[in-house]
Design goal:
The chain is of the alpha/beta class. Helices cover 39% and strands 18% of the residues.
Length: 171
């Protein structure tokens, strides 16, 4: 059996001492004696999860798809031949009082004014909620009759309260 996992750092296992052995996707696969295929990414957006599922060479027939929705304010853009993740957390960086970004993340310092402008002047949580519904419906349509287990990090008002609870039904 092969299980597909898509999501953000919660599904990737960021913050765990040994993420590849302790993350929930590994524990589920161990329990069901299944092969783990985890395509999650730190700060990954719902759009990224959809893009990875639809566009990556993915000719494997998975028995179950576990899709974890993240904060709808997260998004991505393409820069210098690479997808870049941004979120309200990226926008709230005080770049003047922080050390230089780690290697590979220098672009954040350069584009921080634009990212801040996006979140302060353009982004609205209604857009995020509608986009979350679009991702949810797109994945359901794409996978049609395949089993999907939906999770979200927006199940409580305690986590990132300004985002609110998920706008779609989750398992």
């Amino acid at each position: 059996m092969k299980f597909y996992f898509g999501g953000c750092s919660f599904t990737k296992g960021v913050g765990l001492e040994n993420k590849k052995e302790e993350r929930w996707s590994k524990l589920v696969c161990d329990y069901f004696d299944a092969e783990e295929h985890n395509f999650s990414e730190s700060c990954g957006s719902n759009n990224r999860t959809l893009r990875k599922l639809l566009l990556d060479d993915n000719d494997i027939d998975y028995q179950i798809y576990f899709i974890q929705l993240t904060m709808p304010s997260r998004t991505e853009f393409f820069l210098d031949n690479e997808w870049r993740n941004i979120s309200t957390l990226t926008a709230n960086i005080d770049i003047e009082n922080k050390p230089d970004p780690p290697p590979g993340k220098e672009w954040k310092k350069k584009y921080l004014p634009a990212i801040n402008a996006y979140y302060k002047k353009i982004y609205h949580k209604e857009y995020g909620n509608v986009n979350e519904k679009i991702v949810y419906k797109s994945i359901n349509a794409y996978l049609r009759d395949k089993p999907i287990i939906w999770t979200t990090m927006r199940s409580s008002h305690h986590y990132n309260a300004e985002e609110g609870v998920s706008s779609v039904p989750v398992d």
